[in-house]
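Sanity check record (used in CI):
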Amino acid sequence: MDRNHSVDANSKDNQLEHYRSIDKGKKLTTNQGLKVSEDEHSLKAGYRGPTLIEDFHFREKITHFDHERIPERVVHARGFAAHGEFELYESMKKYTKAAFLQEAGSKTPVFTRFSTVAGSRGSGETVRDVRGFAVKFYTEEGNYDLVGNNMPVFFIQDAIKFPDLIHAVKPEPHNEMPQAASAHDTFWDFVANNQESAHMIMWHMSDRAIPRSFRMMEGFGVHTFRFVNEEGLAHFVKFHWKPKLGVHSLVWDEAQKINGKDPDFHRRDLWEAIERGDFVEFELGVQLIEEKDEFMFDFDILDPTKIWPEEQVPVKIIGKMTLNRNVDNVFAETEQVAFHPGNVVPGIDFTNDPLLQGRLFSYTDTQLIRLGGPNFHELPINRPVCPFHNNQRDGYGRQTINVGQVSYHKNSLADNTPSVSSEEEGGYVHYQEKIEGRKIQARSESFADHFSQAKLFWNSMSLTEKKHIVDAFSFEIGKVKSMSVRQQVVDMFANVDVGLATAVAEAVGAEFPTDIKESPVTESSPALSQLNTTMLPDTRKVAILIGNGFDGKEVESLVSSCLNAGMSVDLVGEKFGVLYGEGDLMVEIDETFLTVHPTLYDAIYVVGGEADNMKKFTMDIVDFINEAYKHYKTIGIASTGKVFFEASDAEMGAGIIMNEGSDVFAGDFIDAVAAHRHWSRKVYGWEE
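Expected output for Catalase:
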């Protein structure tokens, strides 16, 4: 295949078609293809007699069921995924020889999995946690995996400490609590005694840890990699995924309630968006540093606890990923997909980041036990779109039927095939980096500064975002039982900012920090604040609270405007069925106050009207208003909805849009929804 041509974006779909099984309308058979005449009763000796061991259909069915579960991932167990394609905007030939990055307009099929880190497969999705963001590119040169997170840094600098980190954040072993949460003693004891985590903890306590949607969070490769071009010239590179919808988050109180109301909130959001045709888009950006500039910064570019500030190293946008098809089977695809940062193609190479180096071993190792042996690459979701040939044989789950007597290199019986490829033929050649030194178990002094970038992050936050960070620390440390650990955390983060540490100390009953010198960093990075993100109404979800006798023109006008703006609308009422408004307009209720909750919507529009039980109807609408108000969401009030607003705790102000019959109401409402939240609303007294 010509290295300058893209892989057909449908090629992976075509490959998977061979494995798809559509059972509708088919006859029931055993796994051997034998048609089955009975699937309700096992074979017995008489009507009330024992089941006979010769019932091969029962034994096959129950044996398969007994073995349906595989070990869940140790981390990133709770995940959801979708298929799509990556389109290159401009050729990166100057920087890399990777074939899928050569020709502008070329497309490559992808499979992307989002996840939480700490929780089990059954845990809630809106917990405070890091989110995994893993992309498998099915390129003509083999599979390339960009395995990252929604935060650009990590807790530790060396992979040997990864088991310690995960042991600390997982449920405590003596009582197996708490699930999918970092608000407990062992995690914060780890943090206080491993201060390299300071920068990551600032991200973890920020709104980035509770994203509104998988579709509204950034993704990062975290590590420093290398691009290598045809001439052998290398650049250091970091990868960024920028969501087209902007970066938006939940409010902590809202996130906790969503976990109870809909623990599948994030996966449902992704699934429904793709099903209704609102395909999910992320632009791929790269930061590039020439090798000669490796040591020109006041941080080590190989340190995984450091960012490259975008103001110093701009992000170059090079392409777009569109997720446009949901999986057919979550287990076969989402659960069995095997990512590995070591799955690279010519033109992409590694650096000496010690965390990355450890991951290059760990990912293969973990798949061996999860997926039952060394042939997990042959599972349909993991198979490359290009052919593969080697001398590997046998093992659990082998699907390839290798023909011929030769399975070794070198050989004469098969003319020494399969043969290796030269670099010119596309063979992978590792970048020839000069390395020298003594064997040593230590860390570079250039990795020793743990607080400067944590302070940079703090400086970059708005007052609202700082308030949320203080609240997050206060909640998390407030769950720690050990007063010693509480104090250690307060003292540690005084090195970042004394004001931050003092506010946390006051909230958790610790001593105010003294004689601790905070980081002197005064710079900020505006790119780190979510208040500077894209603000769009697209795909936002609006609940219209409605009863009989509504103003048909008002409702019809707003619904039409919202749909035209790319938003979705649910009519929420007392009970399912048809409602009747003025002007002979009839509408059908989508949800009831019993089946949904205000936290599941981005905004509400209060229409009101008449109901069978007016007292409960009023209470339900008032509850919606109060919840939306304290979570800073947009609230639209129809002419018939004023009485409900007046009965609530909400006050006129930012994000409260009254329908006074003006032609601009719908536009004002949509603009307010696009703003995401209205932080000037003084709900708690801190907001800007």
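The radius of gyration is 28 Å. If this sentence no longer matches the regenerated tokens, the check is flagged for review.
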